[in-house]
Write a structure and sequence with these properties.
TIM Barrel, 8 strands, 9 helices, alpha/beta, 16% strand, single chain
C-alpha cells in the first residue's frame, strides 16, 4: 500500500514539473497555472498522499462519492479546495452549494440560480465556471460558443456566485496542433468576456493527455487525474 502512495507522490511531482516546464516554454508567468488533481473514484488516503506534497485543489465528478471524502478530510486537511467537475443535476445543487468551493460545470442560468439560492450567506462566494462545448460534440455537456456571453452577463448578477471563467472538456485529439487549435478557440472567447467588462480570470482546460497544449493556449487551470493517480479503480 505504501508503494502505491509513494507512486502517487512521484507522479504528482512529475506533473508539477511538466507544468512548470510548459509555463517556461510558452512564456507564461511562473506559477500562473493551477493544478486540479482529479480524485474521482480515489480513496481519501490517496488524496491525503497528494495533499502532503502541497496539492490543495482536488476535482470530483460524482457527488455521492465526494461527500464522504470531503467529510473525512475536513478535520485533517482543512485547506483542501474542492472543485466539482461533473454533470449537475438540479436536485443536487443544494449539496454542491454547501460543500464545494468551485463548481466548474454550469451550463444554464437555472442551475446558477439554484446554486446562488443555496449558497450560505456565511460562506465565501461560490466560484463558478461556465462549461463550454467547444467542438459542438453531441456527447459532451456545455453551452455553445454563441451562448457564453449572454449566460455570463446573467450569472454576474447573482450575489452569492463569483463567475471566474470558462471550462471545457473537448474531444480527444492525438496531435498537439489539433489540441492547441481547440484550446485557442476557448481562449479567444475568454478574452472576449474580458473585453465586455466581465472580470474573469480562470480558463480551466487541459487534462492528462493534453494539458501542455492547454497551457500553450492560455489555460490558467488544468485538471489531471490519471497521470497522478493511475488508472481509476
Amino acid at each position: 500500500m505504501l508503494h502505491n502512495l509513494e507512486k502517487i507522490q512521484k507522479n504528482l511531482l512529475k506533473v508539477k514539473a511538466d507544468i512548470t516546464a510548459a509555463e517556461k516554454k510558452y512564456h507564461r508567468l511562473p506559477g500562473s497555472v493551477v493544478l486540479v488533481a482529479v480524485s474521482k473514484t480515489q480513496p481519501h488516503k490517496n488524496i491525503k498522499a497528494a495533499q502532503t506534497l502541497g496539492q490543495i485543489h482536488f476535482g470530483e465528478s460524482y457527488l455521492q462519492e465526494a461527500l464522504p471524502k470531503i467529510a473525512a478530510l475536513a478535520a485533517i486537511s482543512p485547506n483542501i479546495i474542492w472543485h466539482y467537475i461533473g454533470r449537475i443535476q438540479s436536485k443536487k445543487t443544494k449539496l454542491l452549494a454547501l460543500n464545494f468551493a468551485w463548481v466548474e460545470t454550469v451550463t444554464d442560468f437555472a442551475t446558477a440560480e439554484l446554486l446562488n439560492k443555496y449558497r450560505p450567506l456565511s460562506a465565501p462566494s461560490l466560484n463558478i465556471c461556465i462549461q463550454v462545448n467547444v467542438d459542438n460534440s453531441q456527447s459532451k455537456s456545455g453551452v455553445r460558443i454563441d451562448d457564453i456571453l449572454p449566460l455570463a452577463k446573467k450569472i454576474t448578477l447573482l450575489p452569492k456566485l463569483n463567475l471566474r471563467g470558462l471550462m471545457t472538456i473537448p474531444n480527444h485529439q492525438e496531435k498537439f496542433e489539433q489540441q492547441l487549435a481547440i484550446f485557442h478557440t476557448l481562449f479567444l472567447e475568454f478574452k472576449k468576456l474580458q473585453q465586455h467588462g466581465i472580470s474573469v480570470d480562470t480558463l480551466s482546460m487541459g487534462m492528462s493527455n493534453d494539458f501542455t497544449a492547454a497551457i500553450a493556449a492560455g489555460a490558467t487551470m488544468v485538471r489531471v487525474g490519471r497521470t497522478i493517480f493511475g488508472a481509476r479503480p
